[in-house]
Design a protein that fits this description.
Number of helices: 8
Largest sheet: 7 strands, mixed
Shape: globular
Helix content: 25-40%
Number of domains: 1
Radius of gyration: 17 Å
Order of helices and strands: HHHEEEHEEHEEHHH
Length: about 230
């Protein structure tokens, strides 16, 4: 019986996660919406000075990844699933976005379903290089730490100073005992193909601007990044 209950709980969490995202459309409409929602998520977290990502952090950022509306479901055992985008700094501007997926599991004191916006700020080139690989494990392939908050705050702890990536979360609802450590980020080549018309890997979009980046709402996303990082 003890083994049965966790198994059922895990199955419920998996079903919730699998049904939390609609099927993608071939014309890239879902991907366009994903970009718009990512820009809105970044605007939202920066709107309040006391909970915003510090200017000192964004000023040093090599890349920014946003996973809007990431679903976390837990009934003892838990899981997480999200779809997001990543852009890299290119001098005074930002690259076109590449599409990513985020999946993970957890165990602990947790119950219910929550959606949250997760933002990863990549602080060093090594962290960006890791993130554009085919598969990246958070907390394993690179140092990840919870980022400092407050527009005028600084990365004061040794952990934050040495982390390759700083993580932020804007929650809507209540969820206890969840972490993104151990979760996996993968490039979403199918989404890249639907949006850009070519089956591009993340690295080519981020470093070679292979996607072109002229399709809407790429301009909105780039403007949002420039507004908060320059």
């Amino acid at each position: 019986m003890r083994k049965f209950v966790p198994a059922v709980a895990l199955m419920i969490a998996v079903v919730v996660l699998q049904t939390s995202h609609p099927a993608a459309q071939d014309d890239g409409e879902e991907e366009a919406e994903r970009i718009t929602r990512s820009a809105a998520a970044l605007d939202a977290i920066m709107a309040a000075d006391d909970s915003a990502i510090p200017d000192t952090v964004l000023g040093r950022a090599q890349g920014i990844a946003v996973f809007p509306g990431t679903t976390r479901a837990g009934f003892g055992f838990g899981g997480m699933r999200g779809r997001g985008i990543l852009s890299a700094r290119r001098g005074d501007s930002w690259s076109a976005p590449a599409f990513l997926t985020l999946t993970g599991g957890s165990f602990g004191l947790q119950i219910g379903v929550q959606r949250s916006d997760i933002i990863l700020v990549i602080m060093v080139p090594e962290g960006l290089d890791n993130l554009v690989s085919n598969q990246f494990s958070i907390g394993v392939d690179a140092g990840v730490a919870a980022g400092p908050v407050g527009r005028n705050a600084a990365a004061a702890t040794d952990i934050q100073l040495s982390a390759q990536i700083l993580s932020y979360s804007r929650a809507r609802g209540v969820f206890a005992g969840v972490t993104i450590n151990g979760s996996t980020i993968r490039q979403d080549v199918d989404a890249n193909e639907r949006f850009y018309g070519s089956r591009l890997e993340t690295r080519r979009i981020i470093f070679e601007e292979a996607g072109g980046g002229t399709r809407e709402p790429v301009g909105l996303w780039r403007q949002t990044l420039a507004r908060h990082t320059n």
